């Protein structure tokens, strides 16, 4: 099964074979792959070699490890287009997944200078700070930290945020969301966020900051999101 004469390193050949088996459905989503010991015997290679192949597949998000339990086949990543201004709820529903949220923090605060500038606030204006964990089919996907101007949404309370923020703005408040600017960068999961997302650190994340505007160029939210890199793939259509 392995070609020991090939210039392709053995651990990569094993990785490719396991990948193929995952893609063919030989190991269905959520099931354990054979143990390191079994794979070592099957391929007649060292445990180090097998471990390297598995680590690569874990890093690519095809497998995940659970301490003391084994290595399992991960669900395929969510493919998230970056060119539409959609909400988390809309995105998950469009994929046939069930979105849910957990509001961790809801409070009124004095904004930092950068948030105040992005939201074009006047001196003394306050913001709601909302920290939510976002789930799809009960699995953690992202943490969103949202800042909204209190003045634009008087009377907002925690219970309204168990559903969609955008639906609340557009349907309840009858406001028109028009456009947004996003910045994205790679990062490593912080310890406190690992607990919220119920995953082990170190893990790769994608940090997205979105400033969104209502009709008339009025900024209404700054959102700093931490997306699980093992659950997301971002896509854009580009033209020339
Ligand atoms: C998305 C947006 C976020 C927005 C949220 C509303 C990104 C990076 N972020 O997650 O800015 O606040 O959707 O979702 O796409 P909701 O209407 O489901 O609460």
Automatic annotation (TrEMBL):
Which InterPro entries has this protein been placed in?
A: Bact_HTH_transcr_reg (IPR050679), Chorismate_lyase_/UTRA_dom_sf (IPR028978), Tscrpt_reg_HTH_GntR (IPR000524), UTRA (IPR011663), WH-like_DNA-bd_sf (IPR036388), WH_DNA-bd_sf (IPR036390)
* Full protein name: GntR family transcriptional regulator
Matches recorded under Gene3D superfamilies: Chorismate lyase-like, Winged helix-like DNA-binding domain superfamily/Winged helix DNA-binding domain
GO BP: negative regulation of DNA-templated transcription
Among Pfam families, the record links this protein to:
GntR, UTRA
What Gene Ontology terms describe what this protein does at the molecular function level?
Answer: DNA binding; DNA-binding transcription factor activity
Segments forming domain HTH gntR-type: 8-76
Keyword hit for DNA-binding: yes
Report keywords, A-Z: DNA-binding, Transcription, Transcription regulation
Keyword check for Membrane, yes or no.
no
């Amino acid at each position: 099964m392995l070609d020991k004469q090939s210039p392709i390193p053995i651990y990569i050949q094993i990785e490719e074979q396991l990948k193929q088996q995952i893609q063919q459905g030989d190991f269905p989503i959520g099931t354990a792959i054979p143990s390191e010991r079994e794979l070592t015997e099957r391929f007649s290679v060292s445990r180090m070699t097998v471990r390297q192949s598995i680590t690569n597949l874990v890093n690519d998000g095809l497998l995940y490890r659970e301490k003391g339990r084994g290595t399992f086949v991960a669900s395929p990543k969510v493919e998230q287009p970056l060119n539409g201004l959609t909400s988390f709820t809309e995105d998950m529903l469009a994929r046939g997944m069930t979105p849910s949220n957990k509001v961790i923090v809801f409070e009124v605060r004095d904004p930092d200078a950068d948030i105040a500038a992005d939201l074009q606030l006047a001196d003394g204006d306050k913001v709601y700070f909302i920290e939510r964990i976002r789930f799809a089919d009960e699995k953690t996907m992202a943490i969103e930290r949202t800042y909204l101007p209190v003045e634009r949404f008087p009377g907002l309370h925690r219970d309204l945020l168990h559903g969609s923020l955008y639906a609340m703005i557009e349907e309840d408040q009858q406001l028109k969301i028009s456009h947004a600017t996003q910045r994205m960068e790679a990062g490593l999961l912080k310890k406190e966020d690992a607990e919220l997302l119920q995953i082990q650190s170190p893990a790769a994340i994608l940090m997205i900051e979105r400033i969104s505007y209502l009709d008339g160029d009025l900024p209404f939210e700054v959102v700093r999101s931490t997306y699980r890199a093992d659950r997301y793939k971002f896509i854009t259509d580009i033209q020339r």
